[in-house]
Structures are given as structure tokens and as C-alpha cells.
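TICKET: design request
STATUS: open
ATTACHED STRUCTURE:
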């Protein structure tokens, strides 16, 4: 009671349990919280209804606005979310010039244009009230300004008129004047033709004046005005020309009526827009000075369809491929008639509630909405959306003032409209439902007229030769698309053309008097050259030289930039190669012309170094006040290291509360940062057709990030979105067309710059040996790399630069003696040390990634190379090393040659003797102790010595190591042994295993939970420690639809950028003092290839399959251990070596002959299967008394391991015949004689059916104190024992099993019993339902006196219940020490993640992050006594390790799977 009183402030009622009182309290709080939430939503909804533009901003922003009611100045930053054309108001505080209130007199557009209000607007009081006044004042100011502009257009000089009035009003007034002039010309049919011709001349003269104006000195605002005005007036001229060409003579002719015409209606005192039958009032939404589109015939047709749709009270739906102007044309129509148009990028996560909020805003404010990529919304949501749009459409048709929408009464402004744009047939798009299609008129937007658009844009930028240059531009792209190679990042569409035109406009401004052909050529090269592959560059240059003959380009002036880059490269110890500098300049140029760009290319192409050096150089230039540059702030995100919802933000599935994503937060911070610094949002990770599509409106001219919460964040001028990707194979054309491209190739960089930088880091005592090291690099690296690429197969594919990088790592790790002061190597030995260390490093780096066969070839070639027996000329015929390679053999041979006649991989560089020594001679091998358990045996072989040496060498020098090789080669064992042997006062380790279902969040949580906070934002192991994180099965995570592996990308984010994002706080967690090591199988069969961008960080060493000599050594030692432990006579032991040989032959043959197929996906064999044969032999209770008994025991174990997984009679018969051959061939005994006791039909020949009677079991003597595993000689007794046990089982168990036992069942019971009595014995039972898998397991477990644990699936069974069940079974096995069988069937796999956890239990005995800290304490206390007895009573970590060891020993997994369908194969 006292506790409850302290916690809750009230004592529980008498008779109420304490927990119930707390529960009531919490439930009550929960209900109150829900009420508060509801009230808040209702309050915000009310405010939105009072000022409908609030619907277009997020709830957080709205709360901020309402909270700032006392200070209207603080509302200014939110203006751009509500008014497209108003950035801020000129506000005057109370007290200035005798004011009593806040007052606003002017509005400013984002580009700096100013428009005064007709009278001062009071901007204090409730924000929704004064914002309504601002809206009304904006309409009034625009109307007055338009009237004045129109009145002044007649008498005023054009230059002054353009400069004195706002851009939007000039264009609209110009349209009214044009309409009036044309109608006047068409008023008399007799003179119409000549009048139209005169009008055309007049318009030409007017346009020439405007173009002359662009060449004069204009400020930014006026230049924008003039360019937009020319764009529209050129269309006016073209329309006049069209009227003339068609012979139009009446104002009622369709050619004229189909034009968009502007009138000033004197009766209404208003501007009216007409097109065919449609009539609209001008909207007076202030647009600022944001440019207009070139009007092509396609644009005209689109306008006509959209205005026709609005006349019919329908929406418009422009559809077509990427870059055809669907969204922009819709927006331009809104600009033309001054309507507010809200563009929103749709994503697959939008729900009907978010859409409803949007529609409410449209209906109440009268705005237009353009939903971009509308068909990315889920089909279920679209059908609801159709109903929502229909409600608004019907209300408009009924001309009501107020209507009901989604349970809310809303005012209706009938100007509202919905437009949607769609890309047909791209990835992640759905087909629209018919009830939705019926509400829209479709416009097919196909290829626009590039030449016309180019000509008009060049003309408006002041180019005199606009037409020929436009033709050349279009021809360039046409020829490129036909003649250059086809690459996923090449795009020659409208957006590519526009970026060249923008660049051309910028250079014209910079060099107004330069030859226009040169300017066009500069623009074409700057925009396109960076994206081309090396072989395409000469072709592109030839195309340009054909189109621009004789045009010589001036050399660009990058002096300041070059100087800064060289300084920064020097600081960072990077080599500023010509290619690196050129690509960095290209990146800079691209950043100037595109706000979204991609750096594309494989690893070691210097992508990251490029942008880092450029950012640093721009900071330098800013400090020196050069090039008007600013410092750079960079935010780096790997978009695939977290999931979509965590990137952009998501609604909580239960409470529907919005949770921000990493990108949303960072983008908002950059957008609201008013400092002039450049802000780069870097996406360093794979691009696919899903996550990046949500950024389409950011990457096009809208520059807005649309979140599912309805929030729209406008990108600031100083921001760039930069993507660093390997390739764009799965990106959609919509994405590729929106971004500038800079392509980098590792081959053009090469490995030499890496070597030069690395040489600078070598200790000073090696200074005199640097020429020799350079010599060795020049002599050995290229020939060896060419040889490996030509003649060897790598287990895990690497890139060319990976291999020299690994060489440098190994060499660097070997030269500790040179780092000591003074140098620990005597001078006379230094040359030999350098030569031997370099040779050793070459063997285990360049030659260290191939498989067994490749090693044999490399050994042969490498010997010839170092003995200088390979022809050095490029025309050699003795070894094929590819064309053009001359070997740079030094005069001086190696100081210590490799011993002849021995494999180079068998030699290690022995520092003590300064020479070569066989690995096996470097350690003393002790015989195996009799007391060891089978699973603890490690037989020392040449492989265990060399791989442990290499691992320890690299890890102790802070290198990331990856062992790659087939399963069962001991990769994990070597690494775990090394980690366990590390100095505990320096090293901690975290071990984890990846599986197909591993997700990035899991692995992040596992690592984060084991690191401490050092200081703000910095995490690592306890101070003074280093942490080695071992990841087994690194390449197991399943590929996503588009090929990414989030867990891999998470690791890469740390390896590239030193940390990852805290998913709760959305800030970067920088990780220190940690390094990774990993093990993985070769790609294939459920294992995937991992991205070269991760592999580049690792030193890869391939762990090859053991050769037969190693196998013989290992299993010979194990058989000797068993023989001495069981006191076998020499007469029996003499057969042991031949049984090892026979086992190896069976293993090698079955791997070759019985390959996995879709129907036999489990036909996979590795070293573990070999071990199981000998583990089974070592289990036998009483040792065999003669050679035949030994051969029977061995045959039984090979049958159990290899034969029991075979699925059909053909395979089983093949194995039986092969076993017969092996017994006859290797044991010196006859098969039929060995198994004579099984010959039931007396024909002196044992067949496959009789061999089935060969059984071993340990339950034949019920209740025996020690259960002996022995051959079953009396089958009736076996059946009677099982039947007795079944009767006992049924008496004790709640669920009876009425089984009819026969020989087949008894066989399976023996097999299951054999598996679960083994240490770490786990079984996979494959069979259809009802074949007795579970029943036989239960009876086997009962006879072994094990408890059986199984889960019970229900509708409400979730991950939470599953985890609780796992805790129960692991506690039983690990803490209570109960031998337990966990019986799990495929029908219980409710979520695939269950398999993930089972995989972890099988691999390591634990499920990562299963226990909370308090539960760990509980478990460690439970095992403390037992651990003490085992000599492990140490830290909590040691006790928990003991608990895991107990789990592995006592818990036996039995998985029951059905082979029917694809599920078994896929799992």
C-alpha cells in the first residue's frame, strides 16, 4: 500500500489487489491523454476552418504559429508554406510612427520583388484573423497593381514600364493588351489579314526591344521579369503568326477562340480569362517573380484540355513519361490565371486521412492541388480518395456555399480544383480505379518540342543565334542517344536539355560579348561530360566537333579552386591526380547548375574524397573571400541503413501520431537555417525506385519535400541534395532525369595514388628502404593481379584496388619493429626483412583471395616471377597476362628466396631467423587429452596456424578482417578462438550472426546496447578498451526487392562515416574504438553477393576447403583420441586409418554426385557432416570387440549422416551400392560378411532392405544409470521396449498418443534418439504432415528423460509471446539445467522472424537482445553456483557466457518441415 501510495498518491481500496490499483490508475491516465489528444485535434481543426491555408502546413507548424500569437514577426518563417509568392511582410511594431498595432505595408516575394498593400494591414490578434486580412489585402493589391500596369502600358516607355511594375502584372497586362490588339485586327473581316500582318511586325519590333533590354545591365529581379516576359511574348508572336497562316478573319474563328485570352471587363472591373467555352475570373494570387514556361503546341493542347475539364467541373490528369512537363504545365496554368497551386508528391504511405486533410484545405481555400505521381498511392486508399473528390465535385456542381465533407461542415470556394500527374508503367505504380478515372480528363503528354523550347529560352537569355544553336543542341542529344553506349545513368530528355539551357543563360550573363557558339559548347560540355564513361568521351567530343567545327574552347580558370584543393589534399594526405581534380571541378560545376546531383561509380573511384575535398576547399575560399563562396555544412545519411518510415517519418499504427524521420528532421533544419553557408544533404547508399521517388518534388523545380503528415518543406537556395551511389540499375527514369550526374571510374584513378599516400605514413626508419618498396610494388603487384584475374577464381569477388590495399595492410602490420625507437631490426637484416615482409604480404593479399585450384596456379606463377623466369616483355608468350604489361623486374633479386619444392602458402616469414619457415614448424602440437569432449576438440593443422596468425596480426593493428570460404571450413572457429585468446584488459568483443531475416534495426540495437556513452554523441567500449565486433554469415541478409541489404548498409555507414543515427533522437551516434571482423560463405544458395562498397573496407582472406591431407590429419587424430580413450586393441585400431579414407571418399563423391536441386534443396554437405560421422562413432557405449563390429558402427554412422537425408529410392540405392564398394575397397573385409547377421533371407547377400535393420540405440535397458549406445541385435526386444515406454508416456501425459509401432517407426525413433543424445545435437525432420514427426520426437525425448517444449499458436500470438516462450525454454535449459527438446513445426511459423531467432539459437545458443538488464541479472544469479563449480565465477559477462554454454548443451532443437511447396526451399 505504501508503495502504491508513493507512486500514485492514493491507497488501493480494501480488497483491491495492488497491481489492479496501479492498472486502474494507468488506464484512467490513458483515457485522459486520449481526451486531451482529441481536444487538441478539434481545436486545430477549428483554426484550420477559420483560415483554410492552415490545412497545407503540419500540425506542429500550426501549433507554433498559434503559440506566437503575441509576436506576429515569429509567424514570418511559415509564410512560404501558406503563400507561394510571399516570403515575408514588411511589419512595423507598435510605437513606430505612432502605431498602436502591428502593421504591414508591403509583401516581399522569395526572389526579392516588393509589392505594396493598398492600405496598411493590422497584423495582431489571433493569427487566423489577421492572416485572413493579409490574404484579402494580397488579392486587393494584386488587382490594383494589374489595373495600374494595364493603364500605364499604353503611354509609358517599355524599358521603364518593365522596371516599374511587378513581373506577374506585366505578363498579365501584356496578355490583355495582346488579346485587345488581336481582336481589333480581327474586327473587320476585309482588312483582317493585312491587320494581322502589321500586328506581327509590331510584335517583332517589341520583342527586339525586350531582347536588347536583356543585354543591358539589369539587376536579378528585373532580369527574371524580362526573361519571363519574352517567353510569353514569343508565344504571343507565334500565335499571331498562326492566325496569319490559317487565314483567320473573324473573332469567332476556332483558331482564335482556342487561344487563352485575357480581358479587362469594365462592367465587372475585373480581369477575365477565356478559352473556347471556358470562362474564369483571374485569381489575383501573388506569384512573385518565379518564371514561366515556354508555351509549345503541346502546352497549348494541355491548357485547352485542363480548362475544358474545369468548365465541366472535372479534374485534369496529365500522364506521360518522365520529363515531359506534366507538373510544370499544370503549375504554369495556375501562374497564368493567378491561382494558388499546391504541389504534393504522393507516396505509397499516404492514407485517406492525410488526403482528406488536403481536400478540406482545397475546398475551403479555393486553391488548386497538383498531386504528383498520383498512382504511387495504394489502391485501397485510391478508392476512398475517389469518393472524397466526388463529394467536392458534386458540391461544386450544386453551387452550394457550405457542404459536408468527412463529417465536417466546410465553406466551399468553387475555384478549387484537383489535378493529378502520372508516370505509366514505372516500378511501384498502380492502375487507377474506374470510379476515379471518371472524375478526370486525361492529357497525354509526350515528347515536347525540344528545338522550339531551346530556341525561345536562348532567345530570352539574349542569344542572337538562338535558332541554329537550338538545332545543334537537339542534334547533339539525338546523336548521343544513338551512338553512345546505353547506361542507366544517361538521360537525354527534357530535363537534360533544360539544364544545358540554364547553363547557357548563366555563361551568357557572365561573358555577354563572347562568341555564342563557344558559350553553347561550354554549356554542353559542362553539363554532359561528367556523366560519360571513359570510352564514350571521345565519341561525344567527335559529335561536338562535327556540330561546332573550328570552335576552340578557352581553358577554364580554376586557379583559386585548384590552389585550395591542392592544399586540402595535402592536409588529408590524398594525391591530387589530374583525374581527381578534373572530376572535383566537374562536381563543383554541377553543384552550381543542379540542386540535385549524383556521384556514380564503383568503390575506390574517390567519390567520398571528392566531395570532402571540395567542401573543405570551398571553406578555404570563403575564409579568403574568393569566388563569392560559402562554407559547407554536410549531413550524411545512408538511406538504406534505416527503413522508409524512419527516413521520412511515419504515423504510429496505433495512435496515428506522427513520428519524424531522420531525413525530415535534417531537411527541415537545413531549410530553416538562414546562414548563407552551403548545405549538402548527402545520401550515401543505394538508390532504388521506391525510397527516392518520395523526393521527386525535391529534385525537380518545385524543390519541396512532401511528408505523409501533409507537411511541405521548401528547400532553400543554399541547399543541394547529393547522392553517392554505386550504380542506378534499379532507379526509375523519373529519378535519373531529375539529377545531374558525375561518373567516376576506379580504373581511371588506379591503385598508385593509394600507394603514394600510404608510403607517406610509413615510419621514418624505413625512409632508406622506400625506393626498394617502390621497386617491389612496380615488379610484383600488376603481374600478380593480372594473373589472378586471368587464371584464378575468387571465392568472394573483389575489386582490383582491394588487393594492393590488402597488401599494404598486411605489410604495415608486419613492420612494428621499424616503429620502435631506435629501430629493432639490425641494419644488416633490414633489406631481408623488407623483401620477406613484402613477399609474404603479396602472397596473402593478391594471392590470398583465390580458391584451392587458384592457389596452385598462383604458387607456380609467383615462384617463376620472383625467380625472374617470366618473360618481361609485353609480347610474352609463356604466361597470358593480358595485353600491354611490361614487367619491371629489378636488378636485385629477393634477399631471401622462397624455399624450393614447397608451396608458397605453407611458408611464413619468421622474423627471428629472418627467413622462411613452414607454418607447422612454428608451433608445438600436443596430443589430444582423453578427458576432452568431442565438441571441444581442435586439431592443429597448417590452416589453423596460418589463419589464426593472419587474423591476430590484422586485428591487433586495427584492420577490419573478413574470412570468406565454404561452410564448414572453420572460419567461425578460428575467429572465436582468436577473440577468446585476446588480452581482456584491452579488448572486448561482441559476437553476432546474420541470417536471411536479420534487419538493420536489430543489429544496431545489439551493438548499441553493448557500448557506453563517452560524451555527447560519442559512444564506444569503456574508456581504454577496444571493441572487436564479429559478424558471422555476413552475406546472409535477404536482398530487398531492389537488391539492397539494410544490415550491410548500416555497417557501411559506420565504416564510411564513423557512426549511425539514433532512431529515437534522430541524431548521429559517432562510434569510436570499434572495429569489425566477419566470416561469410561464397555467394550462392541463399547467400548473397555483398556490395563492393562494404568489401572495400575489409582485408579479405579466403579460407579454402581443407585438402584431403588436412582432413586425414584431423580425423586421424580424432580416431586416435577415441581409440586411446576407449582402450581399443591394436588389431581393431589398424582399420581406423582406412575408415577415415573411406569417409573422405564418401564425402567427396556425394558432394559431386548428389547435387542440390529445387526438390532436394537440403542436399548440402560440409565438414560438419564429416565430424558428425566421427562424433557418432565416439558415442558408442561399449567399444567394438572386433573389426567387423567397428565397420558396422562406422557404416551405421555414415548411413545416419548421409543416407538419412536422401529423398527417393534411386538416391538411397545409389548410396547403398557406394557404401558396399567402400567397405570392400578400404577395410579389407567383405560387405556381406560384415553384415551377415542382417541376412534374413539366407541368400548370403545383404540387400538395402536388410541393411535397414542395422540400428544403434541407447534406450534398450530402461532405467539404466548409464545409457550405453549400442547395436540393436534383438529387434522384437527393441519394439517391446518402445511400446512399454509409450504406455508409460500415455499414463503420465495429458495428451495420449495412440501409436501403432512397427519397424519403420522404430527406425525413426532410433535416429531421433541418436541426434538428441549428442552434444549440440539438433534435428531437421522433413516429411509431410501426419508422417509422425512430432509423435516420434515426443516418445524419443520421453525415453531420453528430456522435457519437450512446444509453443501454442493462437490468433493473438505475436513476436512478444514468441519472445516470452523463448525466454522460458532457454531458462529451463540454461539456468535450470534441464535437458530439453524444443519441438517446432513449420505450421507454427507465424512470422518469418521466428526462424531468425531459431537460427541464432542454433548458431550461438542465444537470441540477441532477448533479455532486459534486470532479467540478465536474474539469470546470472541462477547459474552462479553451477558456474562456480565449473571455475567460471567471474563477471556478469562470464556468467552469462556460462548460461549460453548450458543452453547449447541442454537444448536440442527439432524442426519439423514439410517439403511440399516452395517454403521449405526458400527458408
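STATUS: resolved
RESOLUTION: sequence designed for all positions
ATTACHED SEQUENCE:
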Amino acid at each position: 500500500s505504501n508503495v502504491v501510495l508513493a507512486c500514485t498518491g492514493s491507497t488501493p481500496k480494501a480488497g483491491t489487489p495492488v497491481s489492479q490499483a496501479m492498472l486502474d490508475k494507468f488506464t484512467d491516465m490513458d483515457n485522459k491523454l486520449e481526451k486531451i489528444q482529441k481536444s487538441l485535434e478539434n481545436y486545430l481543426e477549428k483554426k484550420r476552418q477559420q483560415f483554410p491555408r492552415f490545412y497545407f502546413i503540419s500540425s506542429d507548424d500550426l501549433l507554433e504559429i498559434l503559440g506566437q500569437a503575441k509576436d506576429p514577426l515569429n509567424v514570418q518563417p511559415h509564410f512560404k508554406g501558406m503563400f507561394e509568392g510571399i516570403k515575408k511582410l514588411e511589419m512595423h511594431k507598435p510605437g513606430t510612427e505612432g502605431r498602436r498595432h502591428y502593421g504591414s505595408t508591403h509583401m516581399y516575394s522569395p526572389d526579392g520583388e516588393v509589392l505594396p498593400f493598398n492600405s496598411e494591414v493590422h497584423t495582431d490578434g489571433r493569427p487566423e484573423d489577421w492572416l485572413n486580412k493579409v490574404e484579402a489585402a494580397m488579392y486587393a493589391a494584386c488587382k490594383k497593381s494589374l489595373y495600374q500596369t494595364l493603364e500605364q502600358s499604353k503611354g509609358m516607355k517599355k524599358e521603364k514600364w518593365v522596371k516599374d511594375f511587378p513581373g506577374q502584372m506585366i505578363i498579365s497586362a501584356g496578355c490583355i493588351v495582346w488579346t485587345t490588339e488581336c481582336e481589333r485586327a480581327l474586327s473587320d473581316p476585309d482588312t483582317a489579314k493585312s491587320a494581322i500582318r502589321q500586328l506581327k511586325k509590331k510584335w517583332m519590333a517589341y520583342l527586339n526591344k525586350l531582347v536588347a533590354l536583356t543585354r543591358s545591365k539589369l539587376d536579378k529581379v528585373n532580369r527574371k521579369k524580362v526573361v519571363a516576359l519574352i517567353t510569353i511574348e514569343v508565344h504571343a508572336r507565334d500565335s499571331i503568326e498562326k492566325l496569319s497562316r490559317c487565314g483567320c478573319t473573324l473573332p469567332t474563328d476556332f483558331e482564335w477562340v482556342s487561344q487563352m485570352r485575357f480581358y479587362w471587363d469594365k462592367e465587372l472591373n475585373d480581369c477575365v480569362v477565356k478559352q473556347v467555352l471556358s470562362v474564369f475570373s483571374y485569381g489575383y494570387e501573388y506569384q512573385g517573380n518565379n518564371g514561366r514556361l515556354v508555351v509549345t503546341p503541346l502546352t497549348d493542347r494541355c491548357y485547352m484540355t485542363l480548362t475544358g475539364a474545369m468548365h465541366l467541373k472535372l479534374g485534369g490528369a496529365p500522364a506521360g513519361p518522365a520529363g515531359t512537363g506534366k507538373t510544370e504545365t499544370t503549375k504554369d496554368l495556375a501562374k497564368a490565371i493567378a491561382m494558388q497551386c499546391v504541389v504534393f508528391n504522393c507516396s505509397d504511405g499516404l492514407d485517406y486521412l492525410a488526403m482528406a486533410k488536403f481536400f478540406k484545405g482545397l475546398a475551403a481555400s479555393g486553391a488548386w492541388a497538383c498531386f504528383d505521381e498520383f498512382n504511387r498511392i495504394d489502391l485501397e486508399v485510391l478508392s476512398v480518395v475517389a469518393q472524397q473528390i466526388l463529394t467536392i465535385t458534386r458540391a461544386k456542381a450544386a453551387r452550394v456555399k457550405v457542404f459536408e465533407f468527412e463529417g465536417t461542415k466546410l465553406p466551399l470556394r468553387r475555384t478549387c480544383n484537383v489535378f493529378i500527374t502520372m508516370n505509366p508503367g514505372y516500378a511501384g505504380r498502380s492502375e487507377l480505379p474506374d470510379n476515379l478515372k471518371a472524375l478526370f480528363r486525361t492529357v497525354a503528354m509526350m515528347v515536347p518540342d525540344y528545338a522550339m523550347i531551346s530556341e525561345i529560352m536562348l532567345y530570352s537569355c539574349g542569344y542572337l543565334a538562338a535558332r541554329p544553336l537550338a538545332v545543334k543542341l537537339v542534334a547533339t542529344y539525338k546523336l548521343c542517344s544513338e551512338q553512345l553506349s546505353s547506361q542507366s545513368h544517361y538521360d537525354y530528355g527534357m530535363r537534360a536539355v533544360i539544364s544545358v539551357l540554364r547553363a547557357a543563360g548563366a555563361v551568357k550573363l557572365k561573358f555577354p560579348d563572347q562568341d555564342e557558339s563557344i558559350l553553347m559548347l561550354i554549356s554542353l560540355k559542362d553539363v554532359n561530360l561528367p556523366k560519360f564513361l571513359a570510352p564514350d568521351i571521345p565519341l561525344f567530343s567527335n559529335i561536338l566537333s562535327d556540330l561546332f567545327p573550328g570552335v576552340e574552347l578557352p581553358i577554364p580558370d580554376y586557379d583559386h579552386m585548384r590552389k585550395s584543393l591542392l592544399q586540402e589534399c595535402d592536409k588529408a594526405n590524398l594525391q591530387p591526380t589530374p583525374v581527381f581534380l578534373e572530376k572535383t571541378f566537374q562536381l563543383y560545376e554541377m553543384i552550381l547548375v543542379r540542386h540535385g546531383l549524383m556521384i556514380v561509380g564503383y568503390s575506390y573511384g574517390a567519390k567520398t574524397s571528392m566531395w570532402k575535398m571540395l567542401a573543405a576547399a570551398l571553406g578555404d575560399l570563403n575564409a579568403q573571400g574568393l569566388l563569392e563562396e560559402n562554407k559547407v555544412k554536410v549531413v550524411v545519411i545512408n538511406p538504406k541503413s534505416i527503413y522508409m518510415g524512419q527516413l521520412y517519418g511515419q504515423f504510429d499504427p496505433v495512435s496515428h501520431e506522427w513520428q519524424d524521420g531522420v531525413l525530415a528532421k535534417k531537411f527541415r533544419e537545413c531549410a530553416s537555417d538562414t546562414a548563407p553557408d552551403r548545405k549538402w544533404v548527402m545520401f550515401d547508399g543505394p538508390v532504388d525506385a521506391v525510397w527516392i521517388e518520395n523526393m521527386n518534388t525535391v529534385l525537380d523545380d518545385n524543390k519541396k519535400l512532401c511528408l505523409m503528415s501533409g507537411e511541405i518543406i521548401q528547400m532553400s537556395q543554399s541547399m543541394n541534395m547529393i547522392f553517392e551511389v554505386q550504380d542506378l540499375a534499379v532507379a526509375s527514369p523519373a529519378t535519373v532525369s531529375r539529377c545531374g550526374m558525375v561518373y567516376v571510374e576506379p580504373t581511371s584513378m588506379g591503385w598508385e595514388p593509394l600507394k603514394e599516400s600510404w608510403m607517406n605514413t610509413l615510419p621514418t626508419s624505413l625512409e632508406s628502404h622506400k625506393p626498394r618498396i617502390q621497386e617491389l610494388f612496380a615488379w610484383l603487384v600488376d603481374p600478380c593481379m593480372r594473373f589472378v584475374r586471368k587464371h584464378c577464381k575468387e571465392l568472394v569477388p573483389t575489386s582490383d584496388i582491394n588487393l594492393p590495399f590488402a597488401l599494404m595492410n598486411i605489410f604495415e602490420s608486419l613492420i612494428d619493429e621499424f616503429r620502435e625507437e631506435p629501430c629493432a631490426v639490425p641494419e644488416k637484416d633490414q633489406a631481408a626483412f623488407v623483401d620477406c615482409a613484402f613477399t609474404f604480404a603479396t602472397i596473402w593479399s593478391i594471392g590470398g583471395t583465390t580458391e584451392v585450384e587458384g592457389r596452385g596456379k598462383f604458387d607456380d606463377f609467383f615462384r617463376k616471377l620472383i625467380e625472374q623466369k617470366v618473360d618481361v616483355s609485353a609480347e610474352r608468350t609463356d604466361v597470358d597476362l593480358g595485353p600491354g604489361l611490361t614487367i619491371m623486374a629489378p636488378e636485385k633479386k629477393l634477399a631471401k628466396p622462397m624455399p624450393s619444392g614447397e608451396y608458397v602458402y605453407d611458408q611464413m616469414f619468421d622474423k627471428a631467423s629472418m627467413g622462411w619457415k613452414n607454418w607447422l614448424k612454428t608451433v608445438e602440437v600436443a596430443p589430444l587429452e582423453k578427458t576432452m569432449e568431442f565438441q571441444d576438440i581442435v586439431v592443429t593443422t597448417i590452416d589453423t596456424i596460418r589463419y589464426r596468425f593472419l587474423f591476430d596480426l590484422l586485428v591487433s593493428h586495427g584492420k577490419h578482417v573478413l574470412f570468406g570460404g565454404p561452410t564448414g571450413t572453420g572460419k567461425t572457429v578460428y575467429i572465436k578462438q582468436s577473440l577468446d585468446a585476446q588480452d581482456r584488459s584491452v579488448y572486448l568483443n561482441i559476437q553476432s550472426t546474420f541470417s536471411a531475416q536479420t534487419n538493420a534495426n536489430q543489429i544496431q540495437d545489439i551493438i548499441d546496447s553493448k557500448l557506453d556513452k563517452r560524451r555527447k554523441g560519442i559512444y564506444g567500449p569503456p574508456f581504454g578498451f577496444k571493441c572487436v565486433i564479429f559478424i558471422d554469415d555476413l552475406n546472409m541478409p535477404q536482398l530487398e526487392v531492389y537488391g539492397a541489404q539494410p544490415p550491410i548498409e548500416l555497417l557501411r555507414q559506420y565504416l564510411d562515416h564513423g557512426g549511425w543515427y539514433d532512431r529515437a533522437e534522430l541524431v548521429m551516434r559517432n562510434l569510436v574504438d570499434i572495429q569489425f571482423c566477419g566470416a561469410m560463405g561464397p555467394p550462392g544458395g541463399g547467400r548473397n553477393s555483398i556490395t563492393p562498397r562494404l568489401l572495400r573496407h575489409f582485408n579479405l582472406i579466403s579460407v579454402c576447403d581443407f585438402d584431403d591431407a588436412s582432413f586425414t590429419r584431423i580425423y586421424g587424430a580424432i580416431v586416435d583420441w577415441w581409440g586411446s580413450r576407449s582402450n581399443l586393441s591394436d588389431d581393431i585400431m589398424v582399420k581406423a586409418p582406412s575408415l577415415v579414407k573411406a569417409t573422405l571418399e564418401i564425402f567427396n563423391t556425394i558432394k559431386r554426385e548428389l547435387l542440390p536441386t529445387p526438390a532436394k534443396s537440403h542436399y548440402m554437405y560440409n565438414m560438419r557432416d564429416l565430424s558428425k560421422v566421427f562424433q557418432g562413432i565416439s558415442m558408442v557405449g561399449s567399444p567394438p570387440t572386433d573389426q567387423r563390429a567397428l565397420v558396422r558402427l562406422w557404416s551405421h554412422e555414415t548411413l545416419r549422416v548421409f543416407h538419412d537425408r536422401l529423398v527417393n529410392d534411386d538416391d538411397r540405392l545409389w548410396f547403398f551400392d557406394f557404401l558396399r564398394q567402400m567397405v570392400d575397397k578400404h577395410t579389407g573385409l567383405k560387405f556381406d560378411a560384415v553384415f551377415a547377421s542382417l541376412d534374413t533371407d539366407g541368400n548370403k547377400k545383404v540387400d538395402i532392405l536388410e541393411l535397414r535393420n542395422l540400428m544403434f540405440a541407447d534406450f534398450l535397458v530402461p532405467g539404466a544409470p548409464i545409457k550405453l549406445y549400442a547395436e540393436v541385435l534383438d529387434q522384437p526386444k527393441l519394439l517391446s521396449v518402445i511400446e512399454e515406454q509409450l504406455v508409460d508416456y500415455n499414463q503420465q501425459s495429458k495428451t495420449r498418443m495412440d501409436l501403432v509401432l512397427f519397424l519403420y517407426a522404430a527406425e525413426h525413433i532410433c535416429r531421433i534418439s541418436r541426434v538428441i543424445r549428442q552434444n549440440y545435437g539438433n534435428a531437421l525432420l522433413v516429411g509431410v504432415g501426419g508422417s509422425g514427426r512430432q509423435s516420434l520426437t515426443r516418445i524419443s525425448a520421453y525415453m531420453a528423460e528430456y522435457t519437450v517444449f512446444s509453443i501454442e499458436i493462437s490468433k493473438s500470438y505475436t513476436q512478444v509471446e514468441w519472445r516470452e516462450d523463448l525466454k522460458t525454454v532457454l531458462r529451463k535449459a540454461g539456468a535450470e539445467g534441464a535437458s530439453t527438446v524444443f519441438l517446432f513445426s513449420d505450421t507454427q511459423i507465424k512470422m518469418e522472424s521466428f526462424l531468425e531467432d531459431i537460427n541464432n539459437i542454433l548458431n550461438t545458443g542465444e537470441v540477441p537482445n532477448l533479455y532486459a538488464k534486470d532479467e540478465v541479472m536474474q539469470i546470472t544469479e541462477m547459474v552462479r553456483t553451477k558456474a562456480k563449480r565449473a571455475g567460471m565465477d567471474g563477471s556478469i559477462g562470464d556468467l552469462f557466457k556460462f548460461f549460453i554454454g548450458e543452453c547449447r548443451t541442454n537444448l536440442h532443437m527439432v524442426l519439423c518441415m514439410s517439403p511440399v511447396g516452395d517454403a521449405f526451399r526458400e527458408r
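CLOSING REMARK: Residues 533 and 671 are 34 Å apart (CA to CA). The chain has a mean pLDDT of 89.
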